[in-house]
From TrEMBL, chain A:
Keyword list, A-Z: 4Fe-4S, Electron transport, Iron, Iron-sulfur, Metal-binding, Repeat, Transport
Name used for this protein in its record: L-lactate dehydrogenase complex protein LldF
Residue ranges occupied by any 4Fe-4S ferredoxin-type domain in the UniProt entry: 296-326
InterPro entries for the chain: 4Fe4S_Fe-S-bd, 4Fe4S_Fe_S_CS, FTHF_cligase-like_sf, Helical_ferredxn, LUD_dom, LutB/LldF, LutB_C, NagB/RpiA_transferase-like
Species in which this protein is naturally found: Chitinophaga ginsengisegetis
From TrEMBL, chain B:
Organism: Chitinophaga ginsengisegetis
Residue span(s) of domain LUD: 5-187
Name under which the protein is recorded: L-lactate dehydrogenase complex protein LldG
Pfam families in UniProt: LUD_dom
InterPro entries assigned to the protein according to its UniProt record, in alphabetical order: FTHF_cligase-like_sf (IPR024185), LUD_dom (IPR003741), NagB/RpiA_transferase-like (IPR037171)
C-alpha cells in the first residue's frame, strides 16, 4: 500500500493495456449507475430531496464549530470517550494508544475510508497489531495487498477468478472455484472466527448527529455490527464533516445514500450507536486532516458535503475507463480529485485534470456538489501555484494568449485547418495524444466565424 | 493549544456564514404506507412476509418453512437465560424471533432497539432472523419513521431491511454475508 508516484495518465495507460478488462469495468459501473437512475426516478420528490440534503449540509458547515461542540457534549453524556486528531498521524497514534492500553493485538475493522486516508493499517502493522478488514470487498483487496479501488465497491476491479485464487491461497478454498456464492460463504466462515476472537472493533461513521451524540453506520453485510457488538472496545473514526444537525435529518440522507450508491432503497443495516453497551468502551475519534482548511477555501468547501456514495465514480467516463487505482489516493474518482489536492497540491496536481468536465458527476451527486466546476477551478489554482508540469503550463499560457487575442485566434485557426489538410501526418501521429485510439476529424473548409458571416440573415 | 482547541478554532475561523435549516415538509410525497407496498419492497430485497393473526402461529410457520432449526431464541419467551450469557455464545443460534417497532414501506426497513432486544448482537449473529411487526405499525417513508421514533430512548437502534448481503464479487448478489442469511417478517393483525 505504498504511495504511488506515477500520475493518473500513466496509471490509466497501464490499466488500459487490457482492453477487454477496461470494457468490463466500464460496463459493470455503468450498470450500477443505471440502477441508481431507476431508483431516483421512482421517487417524484428526488430533486427536492437532493436540494434539502445539500441545504442541511450547508447549514452543518456554517455551524460546524457549534455542532462539533454539541456532538462532543452529547457523546460524553452518552458514555463515549471523545478524541480529537489534527491530522492522520495523530489519528493513528490515538487509535494505537487505545489498542495498546487494552493489550489488543488483533482487531476487526469495518469499512472506513477515513482510516484508508490516514493509512492506519500499515501503522498498526508496524506496531505489531493485526487488523482484519471485514467488509468482503475490503478483505479481498487486503489479501491481495492492494488498496480499495472504489469507496463503496472496494474490489470492483477484480475478476471472480482472481478472487477464487486469492481465497485458495489464503483461506484454503478448492483451486479453480470462482463461484461468488461459494466464495462468500467461505469468507463468512473465515470472518465469523475473526469476529468471535476480536477484542476491539474499528468502524467508520456515515452520519454523526449533533443533537443526540449518536453515530449511524450503514452496511449491507452486517460486519460493523458483528464487530462492534462483540468486541470489548469499539473505536469509531470519523472526519469532522460527518456531522448533521438533528436526528430527523437522517431520514433525508438515508433515503439518498443507498439509492445513489448502488440503487438499493436502503442498506440492509442502518445502525444507530449512541451508548456503549454495559461493560464496553466506546471511543470516537474526530479527525480534521485538512478538512478545516478545505472549509476555508470558498470554491471548494462544498466538497465537504460529500456522503461517500460513489455515484460520481460510477457515472464518470474517466473513472470507468481508468480504474480507481489510477487516482493514487484513498478516495478515487471525481470527488477524490477535488478532495486530494487539498491534502497535497503537489502529489495530487494531476487529478483535477483527470476529467472531461462533462458534468455527469454533479448531476448525480445526492448533495448537489458542483464537482465538475470545482475540478475546473482546481486546475486554475494548480497552474497558478505552479504545481502542473512545465509543458502543461506553457501550453496553457500559449492557449490563453491565442484565445484572448481575436486576430491571433483567427490566424491560428486558418493555419491549423491548412496544416491538417496539407500535412495530415503532422497531426495523425503518435505524438498527438488526441490521435490515440481515434482518427482525427476532417478539417472544415471555413471557420465558424466565416460561416456565420456568409449565412447570417440581416 | 490542544488539537481539540486548534481544530475548533480553525473551523470557527473558516466556516461559512450560517444558513437556515430547510423544512422537511412535503418530502414524503404520496408514497403509500400499505402492507402491499411494504411486501413488494421486502420481497425485492430477498425477504419474505407472512400475515398472521397473532404470534401463536409463528412456531408452526417456522417448522414448516425452516425444518432444520436447532436453536431458536424468541424474544419475549419465558426462556431468558440467553440474555445473561456471553453474547459470543449466541453464535449457534439458528433463528432469532424479535419484535420490531416500525416498518417503512418505501425501503422495507424495520426499526429495532435494545429496549426490546436486550442483547445487541442477537439480530446480527443469528443464522436466520424473523421480525414480528403489527400491521398498524407500517409507515410510508423514513420521514414518518423518524417522526414516530422521536428522540432516542436507548443506547442502540437499527433499521434492518432484508437479509445480510453482498455483491462484492463481480456484482453478483449473494444473501448471507455476515449477518442473517434470511429474513422473514411476520405481520400481526392490529
Amino acid at each position: 500500500m505504498n504511495r504511488q508516484t506515477a500520475d493518473h495518465a500513466t496509471l490509466a495507460d497501464k490499466f488500459n493495456e487490457d482492453e477487454p478488462r477496461v470494457d468490463w469495468h466500464d460496463q459493470t459501473l455503468w450498470w450500477v449507475r443505471a440502477k441508481r437512475d431507476k431508483m431516483a426516478w421512482s421517487i417524484p420528490e428526488w430533486e427536492q430531496l437532493r436540494e434539502t440534503a445539500s441545504a442541511i449540509k450547508l447549514n452543518a458547515l456554517g455551524n460546524l464549530h457549534d455542532y462539533l461542540v454539541q456532538f462532543e457534549q452529547q457523546a460524553i453524556q452518552n458514555g463515549a470517550i471523545v478524541h480529537w486528531a489534527a491530522d492522520a498521524e495523530e489519528h493513528n497514534q490515538i487509535v494505537t494508544g487505545i489498542l495498546k492500553k487494552h493489550g489488543v493485538r488483533h482487531l476487526v475493522k469495518s469499512k472506513s475510508m477515513l482510516t484508508e486516508e490516514c493509512h492506519l493499517n500499515p501503522h498498526l502493522m508496524a506496531n505489531g497489531i493485526e487488523v482484519i478488514d471485514t467488509d468482503l470487498g475490503e478483505r479481498i483487496v487486503q489479501l491481495a495487498k492492494e488498496p480499495p479501488s472504489h469507496i463503496v465497491l472496494p474490489c470492483i476491479h477484480k475478476k471472480k477468478e482472481e478472487i477464487g485464487e486469492l481465497f485458495h491461497e489464503h483461506l484454503g478454498t478448492p483451486a479453480g472455484n470462482a463461484d461468488p456464492q461459494f466464495l462468500t460463504a467461505a469468507a463468512r466462515q473465515h470472518l465469523r472466527k475473526e469476529f468471535l476472537q476480536a477484542k476491539a472493533a474499528i468502524t467508520g461513521v456515515n452520519f454523526a448527529v449533533a443533537e443526540t451524540g449518536e453515530m449511524v453506520v450503514c452496511t449491507n453485510e452486517g460486519n460493523a455490527d458483528m464487530g462492534a457488538h462483540l468486541a470489548d472496545v469499539h473505536i469509531a473514526c470519523m472526519g469532522i464533516e460527518k456531522i448533521i444537525p438533528q436526528r430527523k435529518h437522517l431520514g433525508v440522507f438515508l433515503r439518498l445514500l443507498a439509492r445513489s450508491a448502488t440503487g438499493q432503497p436502503i442498506t440492509t443495516y442502518s445502525s444507530h450507536f449512541r451508548q456503549p453497551r454495559p461493560g464496553q468502551e466506546l471511543h470516537i475519534v474526530l479527525v480534521d486532516n485538512g478538512r478545516s482548511r478545505q472549509l476555508g477555501r470558498e470554491d471548494f468547501r462544498n466538497s465537504l458535503k460529500c456522503i461517500r456514495c460513489g455515484a460520481c465514480m460510477n457515472t464518470c467516463p474517466v473513472y470507468r475507463r481508468s480504474g480507481g487505482h489510477s487516482y493514487h489516493t484513498a478516495v478515487a474518482g471525481p470527488i477524490g480529485a477535488i478532495l486530494a489536492p487539498n491534502l497535497d497540491m503537489k502529489d495530487y496536481a494531476d487529478l483535477p485534470f483527470a476529467s472531461t468536465l462533462c458534468g455527469s458527476c454533479s448531476n448525480v451527486c445526492p448533495v448537489k456538489i458542483d464537482i465538475h466546476q470545482q475540478l475546473y477551478k482546481w486546475r486554475q489554482v494548480l497552474v497558478k501555484e505552479g504545481y502542473t508540469t512545465a509543458a502543461k503550463t506553457a501550453s496553457m499560457k500559449a492557449m490563453s494568449g491565442v484565445l484572448s487575442t481575436p486576430a491571433v485566434y483567427r490566424t491560428a485557426g486558418k493555419m491549423g485547418r491548412w496544416v491538417m489538410r496539407a500535412f495530415p501526418g503532422m497531426v495523425n501521429n503518435r505524438l498527438n495524444p488526441w490521435y490515440k485510439q481515434r482518427e482525427m476529424p476532417a478539417p472544415p473548409k471555413q471557420s465558424f466565424s466565416q460561416w456565420y458571416e456568409k449565412n447570417k440573415k440581416s | 493549544m490542544s488539537s481539540r482547541d486548534q481544530i475548533l478554532a480553525a473551523v470557527k475561523q473558516h466556516q461559512p456564514e450560517a444558513s437556515v435549516l430547510p423544512s422537511l415538509e412535503g418530502l414524503s410525497g404520496n408514497m403509500p404506507g400499505t402492507l402491499e407496498a411494504y411486501r413488494k419492497v421486502l420481497e425485492g430485497l430477498g425477504g419474505s412476509l407472512f400475515e398472521i393473526k397473532d404470534e401463536s402461529e409463528i412456531p408452526a410457520l417456522l417448522a414448516e418453512h425452516y425444518p432444520h432449526l436447532q436453536r431458536i431464541i424468541r424474544v419475549g419467551d419465558e426462556q431468558r437465560a440467553w440474555i445473561n450469557e456471553d453474547p459470543h455464545l449466541l453464535e449457534d443460534v439458528d433463528m432469532a424471533v424479535v419484535p420490531g417497532q416500525w416498518g417503512v414501506a418505501e425501503n422495507g426497513a424495520i426499526w429495532l432497539t435494545e429496549a426490546e432486544i436486550p442483547v445487541r448482537v442477537l439480530p446480527f449473529i443469528c443464522q436466520h432472523l424473523a421480525i414480528v411487526l403489527p400491521a398498524g405499525r407500517l409507515l410510508p417513508t423514513m420521514h414518518e419513521a423518524y417522526e414516530k421514533i422521536g428522540a432516542p430512548q436507548t443506547g442502540f437502534g437499527v433499521f434492518i431491511a432484508g437479509p445480510s448481503k453482498t455483491a462484492d464479487i463481480e456484482q453478483s448478489l449473494v444473501l448471507g454475508a455476515h449477518g442473517a442469511k434470511s429474513l422473514v417478517v411476520f405481520i400481526t393483525a392490529g
